[in-house]
């Protein structure tokens, strides 16, 4: 089986780890080999959370600079920060709703212009899918469903060896019961926004 390398970057609290669990469960139930690793940083204080998932016959979860097939950014400046993992064949999917860090909010730092971020991401990748996942999550019924919107967009690319049905089943499996329908709706809105 071909190897597909996925990097997910987010800010603590955006649901990166739940998204990784959904992908892992979908891979397990589909009998697709997957290896996962996570870097939590200062996640509880809004710091960076990064997950690396390698699908297929690979021996390591390490995704070196320039090796990512897909970059999934839950926050636009974090996607920009992870750009070194990409190459000219990488597909980048990013949320366009910013969560500026504390330094920018207090005026001690500046947040890059969204158009600048998108231009840099587009320039250094084969394909850029940029969508306001926060708005779509609100439409689904919970702004915290950004992660499911982005999983839907990822599913729409067809780049992972996982079917939409397997991902939906995994969402049902790992999501707490009160949020299942919202998360499934968010997943579908993400698929539609990315062209599925």
Mean pLDDT score, rounded?
92
Shape: globular
According to CATH, what is the class?
Alpha Beta
Q: Based on the structure, what is the oligomeric state of the protein chains?
A: single chain
Estimated helix fraction: 40-55%
Beta-strand portion reads 15-25%
CA radius of gyration: 16 Å
Annotated CATH architecture: 3-Layer(aba) Sandwich
Largest sheet, strands/sense/barrel:
6 strands, mixed
Strands of the largest sheet, in order across it? 2-3-1-4-5-6
> Could you please say which CATH topology applies here?
Pyruvate-ferredoxin Oxidoreductase, domain 3
Number of strands: 6
* Tally of distinct domains: 1
Task: State the fourth-level CATH superfamily.
Answer: Pyruvate-ferredoxin oxidoreductase, PFOR, domain III
N- to C-terminal distance: 24 Å
Summarize the structure.
By secondary structure, this protein is of the alpha/beta class. The protein has helices at 16-29, 76-81, 102-105, 114-123, 133-140, 146-157, 164-174, 180-193; strands at residues 4-11, 34-39, 48-55, 70-73, 91-95, 127-131.
